[in-house]
Amino acid sequence: MTDNTCNMPDENGYFGEYGGQIIPPHLVDIMNEINDAYDTVSQTDAFQDELNKLYATYVGRPSPIYFAERLTEKIGGARIFLKREDLNHTGAHKINHCLGEALLAKYMGKTKVLAETGAGQHGVALATACALVGIECEIHMGEVDIQKEHPNVTKMKILGCKLVSVSRGTKTLKDAVDSAFEEYLKDPVNSIYAIGSVVGPHPFPKIVRDFQSIVGREAREQFLAAEGKLPDTLIACVGGGSNAMGLFSEFLNDESVKMIGIEPAGKGLETSEHAATLTLGSKGSLHGFECYNLQDTEGNTLPVYSIASGLDYPGVGPQHCHLKDIKRATYASIDDAECLDAFMQLSRLEGIIPALESAHAVAHAMKIAKDMSAEETILVNLSGRGDKDADFVAEHLSL
Fold this sequence. Notes:
The protein is an alpha/beta fold. The protein has helices at residues 25-41, 45-59, 69-75, 94-107, 121-133, 143-148, 150-158, 173-184, 204-227, 242-248, 277-280, 318-325, 336-350, 356-369, 390-396, and strands spanning 14-15, 18-19, 65-67, 79-84, 112-117, 136-142, 162-166, 191-193, 233-237, 258-266, 282-286, 289-293, 330-335, 377-382. The protein has 2 domains: 15-55 and 94-205, Rossmann fold; 62-91 and 213-396, Rossmann fold (3-Layer(aba) Sandwich), CATH 3.40.50.1100. Strand 11 (282-286) and strand 12 form a beta hairpin. Helix 5 (121-133) runs parallel beside helix 7 and helix 13 (336-350) packs across helix 14. The longest helix has 24 residues, at 204-227. The chain is globular and about 55 Å long. The model has no long low-confidence stretch (mean pLDDT 95).
């Protein structure tokens, strides 16, 4: 590795050339207040003890690592393992940082938490965490995603959050981010923005990564205990990039471990209907930070698409951008058809119904495993379960 990226971001919130605070001057103080509070509060024994107790007794951590034996036998080649984040309370990795963010809000004396959601997993997890700690919760979600992810919408309402339907633009994740952040800026003193991925202005990429790093810490220890060595390859889907960054973060100094992030190729990279930011994007600013993003020649953000609502974001976390540039991680893409095939194969071979987001990572593992040796291992972060997607897939495939 060409630099000590494990210690990033720097004091200005940059991972190499990416990140920072590309925001109006009056917002910098607000972001710095959150950063200072996080750096202080998160290191206290009281905060860590409460968070770790909730991880164990509320979330159900540690999540296990599972050897997908039947899938491996069918594909051939490398053995495929799954980090079962789908078994967490609320059904995905999102609860890891949502609990941390809700606790941080409580320790800071905030009375309201605002956020966006795409697939609804962040929304459900945050509504859950806010119900637990007794803080008001407001979630902004695009109209398209509300229709597509109805089970998660129902859960959010049951949990007591205020759900705001966003009808602007493409009516999906980017527009939900815009809407939620605008609402937050109306009262940043009493509220806090709990972003759903490793994106946004500093310190959000750092905060979410740190809370998600429990995935990588567990996986490293578990894999060593089970196999006596580290996995050869890590694979995780990437929209904003939180589940991937959570897994990758604890393996950054292990240069023998290959790390691959999987973006949505949607209906094809040759079309305009994809969200392959790191594959086809260019450097620019989005939502208050520098990153690769999909934009036109004048710097305007392009519309994006993915069959997986949690991946249709036109930017990506700044640390992923840096890892791409220094060649510590590589990034590939999987299209809708490959995603659906992996969804069905994992369901019918292993009895595990994955989220469509996670199915992108499974699909790439299936693609590369057959060309690897039987002695090699692949660890996929199965970031979420597919309850929310089951009806959509059944209708799409006419099951």
